[in-house]
Amino acid sequence: MKFLKYSLFALLCLSIFIISCDNEEPCIETTWYQDLDGDGLGNPNVSESSCDQIDGYVANSSDVNDTGVNPTPVSAFDEFNPDAVTVSFDGEEITISSNALINHTSPYWEEGSSLYIEPVVADADRMSPGAIREGSYTLTVSAFPELASTSTSTGLGAIGIAVSGAPIFNDEEGPNVALSANVASGFDYAGGHNGPTGYHYHLESQDVPENTTLSHDDEKLVGIMQDGFLLYGRRDADGEYPTDLDESGGHFGVTPHSNGEEIYHYHIINEFYTGSYVLLFGVDLKGTPNSIM
After folding, report:
1. Count: domains in the chain
2. Inter-CA distances, 5 with 2, 13, 17, 51, 58, Å
3. CB-CB neighbours of 91 under 10 Å
4. Which of 131-140, 170-179, 283-292 has the lowest mean pLDDT?
5. Are residues 11 and 75 in the same domain?
6. pLDDT in tens, 114-134
7. CA angle 111-115-120, nearest 5°?
8. Distance CA 169, CA 192 (A)
9. For all residues of the chain together, what is the average pLDDT?
10. What range does the domain containing 47 cover?
11. Domain boundary among 35, 58, 81
């Protein structure tokens, strides 16, 4: 008798299971396409199949450029010092070459130079030895720079080329030696000083009458970094401070050169590094860095 009860119970459960399965709608898989730039259009070359929509994927597959960035605006290179910087285009590559002879005044010029001035903000006793001299810096980047899957820390030496032609350095003064206020006190108003490899910048320029060319707390172009992304001043093209910057000071937004298109670019991060000094770039690169030769 117990066996019969168990058998009837089992048959009842099986019947309920079969009925519930019959009531379930069958899964119809859809092909979803990756949408990196969030424009609602997917990359036809990157897809996944699933019954439900996958985060970051859309049903549309008509995006022919879903890299998350637009081409580097050519007009940005009009801002570079033509006496120091040459820019050439070869297919999908851009090469920026500089002799490092800046176009603004500095106490680091030889005293006989027409651009030499007495120190304005620099502590003469803390100025580094040597004078501005001709150098050679060449950077080749993609005309379509892409965000990398991981960020890359910067190293000693040039990490970018400024609009003046001088190289941009990070927040280190030597191997594992952070830039100090004492060293920075010997910098000129442009945020630069002389070093073993020549004149270069660490800091944002200061707001003094002598500064007629370089960005200070504004939207001006500062230069191009070694991953191919442009670096702008602390403000957006609309004059406001951006509020959506990532940890590297970058975001997608309109720049003075992007013709209304949103492109990925960096900003000088609006915070003091030490004392009243603001770093040009003391964070990681979000793209793939190229060597500056």
Report:
1. 2
2. 5, 12, 18, 41, 53
3. 7
4. 170-179
5. no
6. 999 999 999 999 999 999 999
7. 80
8. 9
9. 89
10. 2-58
11. 58
Q: Tell me: the pLDDT tens digits for 13-68? A: 555 444 454 555 678 888 988 776 666 777 776 788 888 898 878 898 876 556 55
Helix and strand numbers (H, E) in the chain are 2, 18
Which H helix or E strand runs over 221? strand 221-225
pLDDT (0 to 100) of residue 38: 67
Distance in angstroms (rounded) separating the CA atoms of residues 266 and 255: 10
DSSP symbol at 256: T
Q: Are 86 and 206 in the same domain?
A: yes
pTM for the model: 0.78
Claim to verify: residue 223 and residue 139 sit in the same structural domain: yes
Rg (CA), the chain: 28
Same domain for 188 and 265, yes or no, is yes
- The two tokens of residue 47 are 């897809």
Half-sphere exposure of 165 (CA within 13 A, CB side): 20
> What whole-number distance in Å separates Cα of residue 170 and Cα of residue 168?
7
d(CA 6, CA 14): 12
The string of pLDDT tens digits covering residues 240-254 is 999 999 999 999 999
